[in-house]
Amino acid sequence: MGRINFDLQELQAFVAVADRSSFKQAAEDLFLSQPALSRRIEKLEDTLGVKLFERTTRRVQLTNIGRGFLANVRTALDELEGAILGVSDLAAHRTGIVTLACVPSAVHYFLPAVLKNFTERFPKIRVRIHDESAQDVLNLILAGEADFGINFAGAEDPEIDFKPIYKESYVLAMRHDHPLARRKKLSWKETANERYIAVSKSSGNRSLIDSALAGVEKHPAIFYEVNHVSGILALVEAGMGVAAVPRLSLPPHMQATLVGVPLVNPPIHRTLGLICKRGRIMPPAAQTLFDMLDQSIKNDKKSLP
């Protein structure tokens, strides 16, 4: 045979008849008339120069050659489908936008190196980052307004897939010249007389601390309340007091002036995770960034504080 002279529709017709052992049922599956289906099979057999089916008034069955050909056609169609999906994925990676929601500390520690690598590979894809409170991050994921997120909230939500990536402890943030700055650890009781700066009671961080300290005899006195950890750290840096914050909340650029001493009795921890809406299939570009973040965090855990 000098050249292949049949099309995809003829191969699909062949597989349909082989699966159904019936021209009538195969024609219905393909939304064709029986004569049109028969013409496709006849054309394929003429091109190949062989009979693929034995046809009687009662049944249709594959010839020996037809059975061997069917296995090869199935493989070819599967590979063709995979190739088409691969092209679609590639096209989706060339342009578009990925939307990521995360708590602010994740921006400092997890995103820069991964985003740089991602942009080098896919320079025309835009990445939109919502650095918000834990509840806002969760709401963005649930509403489908972000492809995925990094958050410490959502593990108990039945609509969220939560993949733990890092367990961090709470520390007492203070200036380097504070009298307690050289301590290796501090109990909450030892800090009870400090002037505390805290986030508002609507914050997930505040709820976690309040719950953990419910059984502690003497609670720290809170002198200032702000809405975001960034505001807390600005006041700590100005010498206005101390603050209990997650360790990763101390950004690298502030570590020249601030120190974080682990808090114990009781110790408080939170677990950060990669989150996405359960059952939602992410676009290829978003899935790629998700996988790159996951792998990067696994590789770099030892370098995290």
Automatic annotation (TrEMBL):
PROSITE patterns reported for this sequence: HTH_LYSR
A UniProt-annotated Pfam family: LysR_substrate
Keywords, comma-separated and alphabetical: DNA-binding, Transcription, Transcription regulation
Residue intervals of the HTH lysR-type domain: 6-63
Homology family: Belongs to the LysR transcriptional regulatory family.
Protein name in UniProt: LysR family transcriptional regulator
